[in-house]
Amino acid sequence: MGEGLPGLATADRTKVARMGSGEVAVKATDDVANKQQQDVPQQRSIADIEADIEQSRERLVETVGQLQSAVKQAVSPKHIASRAVAKVKGFYVDEYGQVRPTRVAGTVGTVAGVIVVRRVIRGRRYGR
């Protein structure tokens, strides 16, 4: 495509594009070709590869150890109970440490309603 353009050798890697007004824009892509050549992996010795594998193993062992300790903490009954208590406290206590009366009243009303409904159902069941 760039054979007829003056100043460009056919061996050069170039990109030619026609713009809307008929002008020709030429962009050299030698930097792309150089980048591709740099991306080619270098020859590594067996010792280098073995050292990389050993470092990877050490990182893996460390990561697995961290995961094990995190899982132990997450499933510990003590931690589960403390998270549940914190969740309940977070529902009934605001960020200033004050009790949220609307939530307490809502809970008390719900419990009282359930008790009343159960008594009514039991009363009908036993003919009271």
Describe it for me?
- This protein is mostly helical.
- The chain has helices at residues 30-38, 46-75, 77-92, 101-125; strands at 14-18, 24-28.
- Strands 1-2 form a two-stranded antiparallel ribbon.
- A hairpin with a 5-residue loop joins strand 1 (14-18) and strand 2 (24-28).
- The chain is elongated, with a radius of gyration of 37 Å.
- It starts with 13 loop residues before the first strand and ends with a helix.
**Helix count?**
4
Q: Characterize the quaternary organization of these chains.
A: single chain
Instruction: Measure the end-to-end span.
Output: 100 Å
Any idea what the radius of gyration is?
37 Å
* Rounded mean pLDDT score: 78
Range of strand content: 5-15%
**Structural class of the secondary structure composition?**
mainly alpha
Number of strands: 2
Instruction: Please list the strands of the largest sheet in the order they lie side by side.
Output: 1-2
Q: Helicity level, as a percent range?
A: 55-70%
Output the helix-strand order.
EEHHHH
Shape: elongated
Tell me about the biggest sheet? 2 strands, antiparallel
Low-pLDDT runs of 5+ residues are: 1-5, 7-26
How do the helices and strands line up, and which of them pair or pack?
Elements: E1 14-18, E2 24-28, H1 30-38, H2 46-75, H3 77-92, H4 101-125
Antiparallel strand pairs: 1-2
Task: Give keywords.
two-stranded antiparallel sheet, 128 residues, 8% strand, 2 strands, mainly alpha
Condensed summary:
The protein is mainly alpha-helical. The chain has helices at 30-38, 46-75, 77-92, 101-125, and strands spanning 14-18, 24-28.
